[in-house]
Design a protein that fits this description.
This protein is α+β, with helices and mostly antiparallel strands. A hairpin with a 3-residue loop joins strand 7 and strand 8. It is globular, with a radius of gyration of 19 Å. The termini are far apart. The N terminus is likely disordered. The structure holds calcium ion (2 copies). One calcium ion binds next to loops.
Length: 385
């Protein structure tokens, strides 16, 4: 279900489905905080009953990958991609930017660490086995790339994101205004809380009637893998490999669930932006945020890195595979080719009952041209020798 992106192409069929779902949602949604310009949500399914509470779940039906673009649309787009995406300059311009920055990089020492786990919470995602991985030193962005930073890139290059080129992107249903919602005639069958919204893009995260004026220090969203790579190239950087990302997230702690340890709420304090309440109908935002939070929110891990887990999913370099061996590897970069790219860390939409993927070993995937309102990135850089 996680990889399905079947759409209702019949407006009548879809409307019946949505009406049914909406009727269930409306029973409980009235107490949900919905911030039009700044904060909300989680993926909820009216098509699937939840086990609720904080009980561990092996569910893989989170819709994490339901935001893939359909193959036909992708193919049509790719034929005109060269025209829309001219060669971008690769430079150090970003590092010399006179503009205020929210980001900086930290050099990580690398060495040998244990990647993955022998106790997978979601085995079908390929979280196991635990294996020894050796990494060279590398630099990594301290924060997720913010709207302010992405705006510098766009202003400098005129870059148009794939969400803008396609003309739509996926937004959580309860974040969309009624005015916009009434014109939407398709939904993702496996994850009906995701709706493709015309005019949703990084400048309009919850639809064309929203903006980022109060979100400049929040992570940029609706960024495809291709967009993320374009930004990193412009900044003289790369996307981190999955191994680099997981090493960084673990922060030097071996065999822990989260970047800070095994307890989700140490000293009863929130350490990450995920979903509290009943997913997807009631977001109590006990962590302070219903949608994205500023990239500097919450304490960093021991490597000084913020929001590796939660807030927004982060693209990595690697193609997706669920087949791993226990063999020790050095600087792994994933399969040579594939259909999907790996994303890590989970997002503000993750709840344990539904998408327990806000863990170091957790992983999910999307096609490289996919985008959504909970998907962003950060960049890496090799250490010059
Ligand atoms: Ca939250
Ligand atoms: Ca994150």
């Amino acid at each position: 279900m996680c990889t399905s992106a079947v759409l209702f192409h019949s407006r009548h069929c879809m409307m019946k489905w949505l009406l049914f779902c909406m009727s269930l949602l409306l029973l409980t949604i009235t107490n949900s905080p919905i911030a039009r310009s700044g904060e909300t949500e989680s993926p909820g399914s009216c098509a699937k009953s939840q086990n609720g509470g904080d009980e561990a779940s092996s569910s893989s039906s989170c819709g994490c990958s339901a935001t893939n673009r359909d193959a036909e649309t992708s193919e049509r787009y790719k034929k005109s991609q060269d025209e829309k995406h001219p060669e971008l300059p690769s430079s150090e311009k970003f590092l010399e930017s006179p503009y205020p920055r929210t980001n900086q990089m930290v050099q990580l020492e690398g060495g040998v660490f244990t990647m993955g786990t022998d106790k997978p919470e979601i085995p079908v995602d390929g979280e196991s086995p635990a294996r020894q991985v050796e990494l060279d030193p590398f630099w990594l962005d301290v924060y997720e790339v913010s709207n302010a930073e992405f705006e510098l890139f766009v202003n400098d290059t005129g870059y148009k994101t794939e969400a803008e080129a396609f003309g739509d992107s996926f937004v959580l249903e309860i974040m969309i205004s009624e005015e916009i919602k009434k014109d939407i005639d398709s939904a993702v069958a496996a994850a009906p809380w995701w709706l493709p919204v015309k005019g949703a893009d990084w400048r309009h995260p919850f639809g064309p009637d929203t903006n980022i004026s109060r979100l400049m220090d929040h992570p940029v969203v609706h960024i495809s893998w291709n967009d993320a790579l374009a930004y990193c190239k412009w900044a003289g950087r790369l996307l981190p490999t999955e191994a680099q990302w997981e090493y960084a997230s673990r922060g030097g702690l071996a065999n822990r669930l989260f970047p800070w340890g095994n307890k989700l709420l140490p000293k009863d304090e929130h350490r990450t932006n995920i979903w509290q309440g009943v997913f997807p109908t009631n977001n109590t935002a006990e962590d302070g945020y219903t949608a994205t939070s500023p990239v500097k929110s919450y304490p960093p891990n021991k490597f000084g890195l913020y929001n590796m887990i939660g807030n927004v999913w982060e693209w990595t370099h690697d193609w997706w595979t669920t087949r791993h061996t226990a063999e020790r590897k050095t600087n792994p970069t994933g399969p040579a080719s594939g259909k999907d790219k790996v994303k890590k860390g989970g997002s503000y939409m993750c709840h344990k009952s539904y998408c327990y993927r806000y863990r170091n070993a957790a992983r999910s995937q999307n096609t490289p041209d996919s985008s959504a309102s909970n998907l962003g990135f950060r960049c890496s850089r090799p250490v010059e020798t």
